[in-house]
Each structure stands twice: as C-alpha cells, then as structure tokens.
Amino acid sequence: MIKEGTFREDLFYRLNVLPVYLPPLRERKTDIPHLVNHYVNYFNNVHNLQIREVDPKAMEALMQYSWPGNIRELRNIIEHCFIMESSDTIHLSSLPSIVLKGQNQNEEEDENMDQGIIDLQEIQKSVLDQEKPENLDGSTFNFGTTFEDGKLDFAIAKDQFEREFIIQALKINKGKINQTALNANIPKKTLLRKIEKYEINPKDYY
After folding, report:
1. Where are the domains of the chain?
2. What number of other Cβ atoms are within 10 A of residue 31's Cβ?
3. Cα separation of 137 and 106, whole Å?
4. Residue 170's CB: how many other CB atoms inside 10 A?
5. How much is the pLDDT for 149?
6. What was the pLDDT predicted at 115?
7. What separation, in Å, do the N-terminal and C-terminal C-alpha atoms of the chain show?
8. CA torsion 67→69→73→74, rounded to 10°?
9. What are phi and psi of 24, to 5 degrees?
10. Helix axes 97-115, 56-64, angle to 10 degrees
C-alpha cells in the first residue's frame, strides 16, 4: 500500500514497533477449542439460541481439519453448525462435508492398516444372500461397481449407494426435503449433509 501511495509511510513506521507473527491455525491446534467456544457464545447471542457444548467427536473432527481458511473459515463452519443443529449440542453430523471428509480419510486409513484390502470372497456370501437392494419404487439400484478383479472398494460402493438412494428418494418425493426425509426415514440434517456432500440439487427433481 505504501508503494501504491494508499498508506502513509511515516504512519507505517510509527505503528511498526513490534511486528507479531501469527502462524496459521493448522500450526496451533490447541487454540481451536478456545476459538470454537468463543464462536459458539457469539452465535448464541446472534441467533438467540442455547448451544451448550460441542460433542467430543465433533471437536475431534475440528481438531483434525487442516483449516486452509484459518479463523474466518472456522467462524463460518461454526455458523453452519448452528443452522444445521436442532439440539443444544453441536454433533458430528452438523459439520460440513469438507470437515467430515478429512476425518473419514483418517478413519479409513486406520481401518485399512488393521484389516487390509477387503477381498470379494469375504463379502460375496452376504451380497448374494441379500440380492440387489430395491429403490423406493421397486426397481433395483445400479451401483456401477465391478467385481472383475476380485476386489471391492467399500468407500466407493457406499458413496455410490447413498447418492443413488437419495436421488431416487428425491425423485419420488418431487425434490421436497421434509417429505423425502420422512418417507425415506432419514433425519433431515443427515439428508441435507448428504445432499451437500454429493452435490445433489433437489430442484432437479421437482
């Protein structure tokens, strides 16, 4: 700004007594619980709500997240939780998908280290016993996965099933969120989180 002539150079030297370096939030994770509590109190006042605490699992996910947007991003995410949460506690399900993806990746890495890659033979019997799951209209889902190499990626298959199920439910309920949540037996906040995760637009099914 000094070079552009929009800030006085003499004022800069008057203010520049003790420069303070503030590391990014990902390098000071111990600050996160304090900042979360601060913004919980702040948004309680703004929205006239009474969120009393953050569930330990939700706090753990916040601690594991890399925070590329630093404190401004943390503030926005806490406000997101206030919109999604219907109780007096911020739960894991209220966090946006970008935070949950980071936690899910860590959990999947730990699970793979313990169990290794899931072999088709270990799940083939249960799949055959259950046959193909049905849509709400009686048709069957198309998972889009193959078993040719004898391996199955559980995370991909699970995501494909969830996305297809939600799309079919929205189609049947003409894109109405409340009606879809009720008829498909999905908690509304879970449905909204999945819609955000899979980038589904309910308006496409009106």
Report:
1. 1-116, 117-206
2. 14
3. 36
4. 24
5. 55
6. 43
7. 51
8. 30
9. -65, 160
10. 90
Residue 195, pLDDT above cutoff 60 = yes
**Helix, strand, or coil (residue 119):** strand
More confident: 150 or 206: 206
Q: How far is CA 49 from CA 45, 76, 79, 85, in A?
A: 7, 17, 12, 11
Q: Which tokens is 112 given?
A: 């793979």
Q: Is residue 151 helix, strand or coil?
A: strand
* d(C-alpha 96, C-alpha 116), whole Å: 29
CA atoms of 98 and 65, how far apart (whole Å): 9
Tell me the two tokens of residue 202: 């309910």
CATH 1.10.8.60 fits 1-116, yes or no: yes
Report how far residue 27's alpha carbon sits from residue 44's, in angstroms, rounded to the nearest whole number: 28
Angle of the 188-197 helix axis to the 97-115 helix axis, nearest 10: 80
Give strand pairing partners of 119: 151
d(CA 183, CA 205): 16
Does residue 105 or residue 53 have the better pLDDT?
Answer: 53
Q: Which residue has the higher pLDDT, 124 or 23?
A: 23
Rounded Cα distance between 105 and 57, Å, is 15
The whole model's pTM is what?
Answer: 0.47
